[in-house]
Every structure is written in structure tokens, then in C-alpha cells.
Design a protein that fits this description.
Layout lengths: L2 H32 L19 H17 L1 H19 L5 H31 L3 H11 L16
Helix pairs in contact: 2-4, 3-4
């Protein structure tokens, strides 16, 4: 091996090592500090009872889980309807009546799921004291579609 090729090999190895150490250091810093900002914990509907007692939180989660289990057939129908809709829309020619039918199936299933979840939320809220309900409603805002936009509008 000539001295020139040895110098090129050492320079290439040094450049690779600097790149590798920089990538590893950046990944370590991102993993230690940065990625926590990407996730927003507590944003789901199940966290709407986060400021209530532990027992009430557990009851609320159980009610939501039961509502979702009861609506499993509708969730599956919506999923299958979306898959069929995707196939219809990807076809060479769009069959408008078939697309409209699939959209109606998906809408109906989505409404049934939403109705079941909202009923569970309402049933839970009725079991709370007025003060607990105020706390619950405050936590419910921004989670799910039930009170979406309620924070910006004032009720009179």
C-alpha cells in the first residue's frame, strides 16, 4: 500500500468516524431530551377524568372500554367500508352510486361508534357531583369530538 492510498484511507476512516460519533451523539441527545416534546401525553378521551379520584378515573376508563367493545361491530364495519371505498376510488372509473353507498355505510358506522362513546361519557358525568362535573368538563374539552371548540365559545 502506497503512502498516498494509506493517507486517503485514514482520512476516509476519520471522516466516517466523525460522522458516526456525531450521529450517535445527536441520537442520544434527541432520545434524552427532544422526543418528549413530540408526544403529548394525556390527550386521549380516556384522560378526561385525570383530575378526578383514582377510582373515578378507573370507572371512566371501564365505561369507555365497554362502550368501545359494544361498538366493535360498527368499528369493523367502518374499517371495512373505508377499505371498500379505497378500492372504489382507486378504480379506473369511479362508480358514483357505489361510492355514495360506501360513504353512507362508513358514516352510519362512525355515528354509531360516536353515539356509544358519547353515551358512556354522559352516563359517567351524571354520576358526578356538580363540582366534579365542572372539573370533568374542563378536562373533556379538547379531547374527542364531543366538546370540540367549546373552549372558544361562551355559553349564555
Amino acid at each position: 500500500m502506497s503512502p498516498r492510498s494509506r493517507t486517503i484511507l485514514i482520512a476516509a476512516s476519520l471522516a466516517f468516524n466523525v460522522f458516526f460519533v456525531g450521529a450517535a451523539g445527536g441520537a442520544l441527545i434527541w432520545y434524552s431530551f427532544g422526543h418528549n416534546r413530540l408526544a403529548q401525553p394525556g390527550q386521549g378521551l380516556r384522560f378526561a377524568a385525570q383530575h378526578l379520584s383514582a377510582q373515578q378515573q378507573k370507572t371512566f376508563r371501564q365505561m369507555l372500554n365497554q362502550a368501545r367493545q359494544d361498538a366493535a361491530a360498527d368499528v369493523e364495519a367502518a374499517r371495512n367500508g373505508r377499505a371498500a371505498l379505497s378500492t372504489l376510488l382507486a378504480a379506473d372509473t369511479i362508480d358514483q352510486p357505489a361510492v355514495n353507498t360506501q360513504l353512507e355505510v362508513v358514516r352510519k358506522a362512525d355515528i354509531n361508534v360516536r353515539t356509544a362513546v358519547e353515551k358512556a361519557v354522559l352516563d359517567f358525568a351524571q354520576k358526578l357531583t356538580p363540582e366534579e362535573r365542572r372539573i370533568f368538563v374542563q378536562d373533556l374539552r379538547g379531547r374527542g369530538a364531543m366538546l370540540r371548540g367549546a373552549a372558544q365559545r361562551k355559553t349564555q
